[in-house]
Write a structure and sequence with these properties.
With 578 residues, the chain is mostly helical. It has a domain of 385 residues: Up-down Bundle (Sodium/glucose cotransporter), CATH 1.20.1730. It contains 23 helices and two strands. Strands 1-2 form a two-stranded antiparallel sheet. The protein starts with a helix and ends in a 15-residue tail after the last helix.
Length: 578
């Protein structure tokens, strides 16, 4: 069978599985819709967390960026993995114990202010829409190539699928769907990597094959061969970096602390019964995540080496079938500058004839390596699973921020449980439409767009959460001022260089050599500085809030006992269960 038939079969089966799970796990209450009834097993929650966190950026775009950036691409590996560890060990258990299942809810109650809650809602909406744009673009890219439709049509198909199980199942449906999606995406990532590793190095472990000798090149190591290929084409060595060290540091830091402030990951720790289970699920998720992240550098190197081998100086008329297939999507373009009919890939813009979207590299890699057609179809299903799992989590965050945090907690406190559930489902519909528009008109590559979202989370939520847990002197005035200063500065910097003056988006014009992907670290520092400065000159938080912060870190201390002293907090919130 050809690739397209295999793709239809495998993608069709996985979509049927997702929809079946959504019907089985239909949410009947807001408790089910928002946090899956706090009844998910830690192992299942670990898988769902891994799928939620490993988005299209992880599956589709990260290895593609590493294949083009080489050493510089390591910022994504270090930033995202380090950030998850930071979230799992430093923040998740305390947030779970606090008992508020959304970041705006935590901010609103910890800082005893609906204004703080409103600022957090706006930040959550801004961050989530930026993030979901990358996921929907990933869906469009996959469909455009393998189902022979346009990117716009591909995004619309993805919208329909994710809308169905997000609206019907809420967090309960999404959680169990994400368990299935994790199994699909990790199998789809590892199997092609193993195939290609065997073909290039005769080693079934990609992580080891990445540093092994090639089977047909007289004992030459893969990375040495790749370095030689790159320098022959005028590029820097694959294993050398070209980015300024300050930018490497700031991007890595922004991705790390941005991960720790992502609302769609934080909410996952409320779907388990107890605080202990939140810690366990965080540990399981680390194990599940490392399977993909330890493989990504190998996938990047394999794809780059095979790409150059099969395209450089080849007659266009004799180019492999995969080349023409991707060319039809517009994501791979060839211009015969010297009219010799041969494909030339070079670092010099005057000599280079290829324009390649990095987002295609992982998807195209099995085709380039000529693996069996079913392996190619499997990669398609994995890419869709990664994109749709995160998109669903983000859409639920948007729905929760608007229906629960805005409507229920601020605008209509008397809203019934049924009315809130209906409102949540309506807002999912509205956010799906907006997410689809952003997927069709994204602000950049998948990983680049996602990096912007991490920067926004780093500059807004991370300081507010950190100081909310570990600094009892932080008050509402400081938190609000810090969040506003951080996200406005970061958002303005990204918008200026990405949309207003993209021709200036280079190291010569960046402030201190810091790119828009790394500016979130500066925004975070600004947030901390403004928040601490304002808090110093305004009155302390109420005594009961200070006691709450003091006691929340004490093992075994019941949050209900602490909350009993706080008449202004609602002890019947779904997140307080367990």
């Amino acid at each position: 069978m050809d690739i397209q038939i295999w793709t239809f079969i495998i993608v069709g089966l996985t979509f049927a599985l997702y929809i079946g799970i959504a019907i089985w796990a239909k949410a009947g209450t807001t408790h089910d819709f928002y946090i899956a009834g706090s009844s998910v097993h830690p192992v299942a929650n670990g898988m769902a967390t891994a799928a939620d966190w490993m988005s299209a950026a992880s599956f589709i775009s990260m290895a593609g960026l590493i294949s083009f950036l080489g050493y510089d691409g390591s910022v994504y590996l270090m930033g995202w993995t380090g950030g998850y560890v930071l979230l799992a060990l430093l923040l998740a258990p305390y947030l779970r114990k606090f008992g508020k299942f959304t970041v705006p809810d935590f901010v609103g109650d910890r800082y005893y202010s609906d204004w703080a809650r409103l600022v957090a809602i706006l930040c959550a909406v801004f961050i989530s829409f930026t993030y979901v744009a990358g996921q929907m673009r990933g869906v469009g890219i996959v469909f455009s190539r393998f189902l022979d439709v346009g990117i716009t049509t591909g995004v619309v198909i993805g919208m329909i699928i994710v809308f169905f199980y997000a609206v019907l199942g809420g967090m309960k449906g999404i959680t169990y769907t994400q368990v299935a999606q994790y199994c699909v995406l990790i199998f789809a990532y590892l199997v092609p990597a193993i195939f290609v590793s065997m073909m290039l190095t005769n080693n079934p472990f990609p992580q080891i094959g990445f540093g092994s000798t090639l089977v047909d090149n007289n004992g030459v190591y893969l990375l040495d061969r790749l370095d030689g290929m790159m320098t022959d084409l005028g590029f820097d060595k694959y294993t050398d970096g070209s980015k300024p060290k300050i930018d490497i540091f700031f991007i890595t830091a922004a991705l790390m602390v941005g991960t720790a402030g992502l609302p769609h990951v934080i909410v996952r720790f409320f779907t388990v019964p107890k605080v202990r289970d939140a810690r366990l699920s965080a540990g399981y998720a680390c194990i599940f995540i490392v399977l993909l992240y330890s493989t990504a550098p190998a996938v990047a190197a394999f794809a780059k080496a095979n790409f150059i081998d099969t395209t450089q100086n080849v007659e266009y008329s004799e180019a492999p079938e995969w080349f023409h297939n991707w060319e039809a999507t517009g994501l791979l373009q060839w211009t015969d500058r010297n009219q010799d009919g041969r494909i030339q890939y070079h670092s010099d813009p005057e000599l280079n004839e290829l324009s390649i979207d990095p987002d295609i590299m992982v998807l195209a890699s099995p085709e380039i390596a000529q693996t069996p057609n079913w392996v190619v179809g499997l990669v398609v299903a994995g890419g869709l699973a990664a994109a749709l799992s995160t998109a669903a989590g983000l859409l639920l965050v948007l729905s929760t921020a608007l229906a629960h945090d805005l409507m229920k907690r601020i605008l209509v406190p008397t809203l019934s449980d049924k009315g809130e559930l209906i409102t949540a489902r309506i807002t999912v519909f509205a956010t799906v439409l907006m997410a689809g528009y952003l997927g069709i008109n994204p602000p950049g590559f998948v990983a680049q767009t996602v990096a912007f979202a991490f920067g926004l989370a780093a500059s807004s939520f991370f300081p507010a959460i950190m100081m909310g847990i570990f600094f009892k002197r932080m008050n509402k005035e400081g938190a609000i001022a810090g969040m506003v200063a951080g996200i406005v500065f970061t958002g303005a910097y990204i918008i200026y260089f990405t949309f207003i003056n993209p021709e200036l988006n280079n190291v010569d014009h960046w402030w201190f050599g810091i790119s828009p992907e790394g500016i979130g670290t500066v925004g975070m520092l600004l947030n901390f500085a403004v928040a601490l400065g304002v808090a110093k000159f305004t009155k302390r938080p109420p005594v009961e809030i200070q006691e709450l912060v003091e006691n929340i870190r004490i093992p075994g201390k019941s949050i209900r006992e602490i909350r009993a002293k706080q008449a202004n907090l609602d002890d019947k919130e779904p997140g307080d269960q367990g």
